[in-house]
Amino acid sequence: MPPDLLEALLAHEMAHIQRHDYLVNLLQNVIETLLFYPPAVWWISNRIRVERELIADDFAARQLGEPRRLALALSELERLQFSTHHLAQAANGGNLMDRIQRLCRPAPQALNWKAAVPMLGLALACMSIYAEAVAADKVAEQTVHALADFSSCDKPKWPEGAIARKEAGTVTLKFLVGADGKFKKSQVQKSSGHQDLDEAARAGIEKCGFKPALKAGKPVESWMQLQYVWVLE
Questions:
Q1: What pLDDT was estimated at residue 87?
Q2: Are 69 and 63 in contact (CB under 8 A)?
Q3: From the CB of residue 180, how many other CB atoms can be counted at a distance below 10 Å?
Q4: CA-based nearest residue to 67, from 109, 20, 94, 99
Q5: Does residue 205 contact residue 176 with C-beta atoms inside 8 Å?
Q6: Within 13 Å and on the Cβ side, how many CA atoms surround 29?
Q7: pTM summary value
Q8: Which DSSP letter does residue 209 get?
Q9: With 0-12 CB in 10 A as exposed, 13-18 as middle and 19+ as buried, what is 22?
């Protein structure tokens, strides 16, 4: 390839270097790996690569002052691609014929905001995937506490003599409920002030059925806490 055409291709590559396109391309590859499945990501990524080559062409054309020389260099590069099995220079990104026609017959310049559309679309796709992932994590971490089914048992019975002694109060109890929903053990967290009331409440509630706690939708063993109030009528 003649030196003047090589100079045109080098001007194109210098444009990529000055714009730090290699870093952008690296980030783009990471995003493509993380968001492998959505087709929109691949379409947007391809548009970004095409626009990147066109911007580098414009930069090189301004530096050379001869857009047609760069177009000729790209044409020669296209010819070399079909005449040899060796790798061509990196300037062969995108559709070479479209780039050559654009340099020879530039179209009216589009509005600047259109150049940001592919990047904006990619950002929105990333935000959408991230939001879905965060929502899925929250659901996975959500815990539903164990519950006692009071419809499955009778109310705790008053201890003998407690009413006559006018005993009353609130007892706080803790129950260990297995993943199968069965009661395992219990303990008094805070006494009502009367031991016989505490034991009567614990013995009565132990006969109830229980619903196990759920973590990420799966039943797990856990402690539950509840209060029982003894009130004189």
A1: 42
A2: no
A3: 10
A4: 99
A5: no
A6: 6
A7: 0.41
A8: E
A9: exposed
Distances 177 to 73, 165, 174, 206, 226 between C-alpha atoms, Å: 77, 34, 10, 10, 13
**Span 33-87, pLDDT tens digits:** 888 888 888 888 888 888 888 888 888 888 888 888 888 888 887 777 665 544 4
* Residue 168, token pair as written in the block: 């009353």
Question: If 0-12 CB within 10 Å is exposed, 13-18 middle and 19+ buried, where does residue 34 land?
Answer: exposed
**pLDDT higher than threshold 50 for residue 89:** no
Burial class (CB in 10 A: 0-12, 13-18, 19+), 41: buried
Measured at the CA of 229, the angle between CA 233 and CA 149, to 5 degrees, comes to: 115
Cα(214)–Cα(216) distance, rounded to whole angstroms?
7
Strand partners, 228: 171
* pLDDT-derived band at 112, boundaries 50, 70, 90: low
Q: Which amino acid is at 28?
A: Q
For residue 27, give the DSSP letter: H
Decide if 165 contacts 192 (C-beta within 8 A).
no
DSSP H or E stretch at residue 141: helix 117-141
